[in-house]
Design brief:
With 161 residues, this protein is mainly alpha-helical. It has 2 domains: 85 residues; 74 residues, no CATH class. The chain is 73% helix and 0% strand. It has 9 helices and no strands. Helix 2 runs antiparallel to helix 3.
């Protein structure tokens, strides 16, 4: 079994950028056809090479149960990987999951932290969401959330939560 895993990892590492792009496009085409299982399979290969956008999309697909069983824990794994690489959609989705208590206990302070990070990464809706989360917590909690966001970024997303 270890040999198979090692060979799979080696194959992933050796995928050329053109092969990754081809799998990315094939996944996108499958997604457009609503063939979510194929999209997940293609993007899973690309995500395992470290592609942040594929990781983010896999997280969203696990969240929604598209082409894979719905799983908040799996969504969180993929979204955290993408978020740590600066992917604004993943950062924003993590904020939403905290705000809505999906996969986490509802926590508006942590939601605000992720929304601040997403805002700093350029997510177009994050600013509005910061205000919504701020309406649910005290001003001092918002200050702490902003400090957490800055610390998380400085630590390159290690030990953010």
């Amino acid at each position: 079994m270890r040999t198979t895993a090692a060979l799979t990892l080696l194959a992933l590492c050796l995928l050329s950028p053109n092969a990754q792009a081809g799998l990315w496009e094939e996944g996108y085409e499958a997604y457009q056809r609503k063939d979510y299982a194929t999209a997940v399979a293609k993007w899973n290969v690309v995500a395992n090479t470290g592609d942040r956008e594929a990781q983010s999309l896999l997280g969203i697909m696990h969240f929604a149960g598209q082409g894979t069983p719905q799983s908040y824990p799996q969504a969180i794994v993929w979204l955290r990987r993408a978020a740590a690489q600066g992917e604004p959609k993943a950062q924003f989705k993590l904020g939403n999951m905290y705000a809505n208590g999906q996969g986490f206990d509802r926590d508006y302070q942590k939601a605000a932290m992720w929304y601040v990070i997403a805002d700093l990464s350029g997510h177009p809706e994050a600013g509005k969401s910061i205000k919504k989360a701020a309406a649910e917590i005290s001003e001092s909690d918002l200050v702490v959330a902003r400090r957490w966001a800055q610390t998380c970024i400085k630590r390159e997303f290690k030990s953010c939560e």
